[in-house]
Specification:
Distance between the termini: 92 Å
Number of strands: 10
Strand content: 15-25%
Helix content: 40-55%
Structural class: alpha+beta
CATH class of the largest domain: Mainly Beta
CATH superfamily of the largest domain: Immunoglobulins
Amino acid sequence: MAGMKRYAKWLAAGALVASAFAVPVRSAAQVGSVEFVIQVTPSGGLQEPVRGFPVFLLSESFDDIEKEADAAFPKENQNDFIDSLDVSKELKAWMKKNQWITLSGQDFVKKVTPDDVMDIPEFYKAYMARNSGDQSANFPVPKFRESEKQKDPAKFQKDEDAYKVAIRHYLEQIPESINGIDLELQDVDPSRKWHDIEAKREPQVQRLITQLAQGKYLIARTETNLQGQGFFPNISPGTYFLSSLSVSATVGDAHSRWDFPLTVQPGQVAYTVLSNVNAVADTAHVSP
């Protein structure tokens, strides 16, 4: 009987020791790891490892983080901004219709039609200032004087209407005569004011992006070694994103950054190669 009791105690002690060792074994099996290598190939060159490059393991995609930060600082409504401007109702309507507030440059000039010139006071004034003094181009000459407006209003109106018909005809025949009207619109061009409003908002958005990416959604951070390799140990199972945030890896003429999703399984290594192929579009280096 005494032997049986000693045997029972020995079994209980053995079970306790075994359970003590079993806990960390199960814990180790519950986590996984991430291994990656970054290799970029420039145009006409050989594939190269990207060394000493910071990589972040995020629980949210960097693209969604940017959207979250952008939504936290609502943009001023462009139509409300247009309504606040001290310009004609016709110009306000044109801006809203075209969703365009920059009254300078060739992109703007290409949007202006003969109807726009004749119907929008600011455009008509700018067009006249640009062309009316050019006698060598046979620009229409008015057959009335401002002083006649009080003496014979009906005749004045008739002559003015005929003059505008002649101007429209000239404009339709010589459409390039619109070129340069933006130089006469600098005083009414609201684009600088609009860009100033956006410029004040942008730093706030960028600060929040950094706070979210390197705080709320950051799981781990590392830098690649001389072979372009990186490693994240002891990562809980789940879906993550390998991200370089807004920083691009530059190899020759190649500029690549990543926001690459991957899944970590318990007790397994999630391995991937980051390259030009799975890089996100880097708009800062896209040719216009």
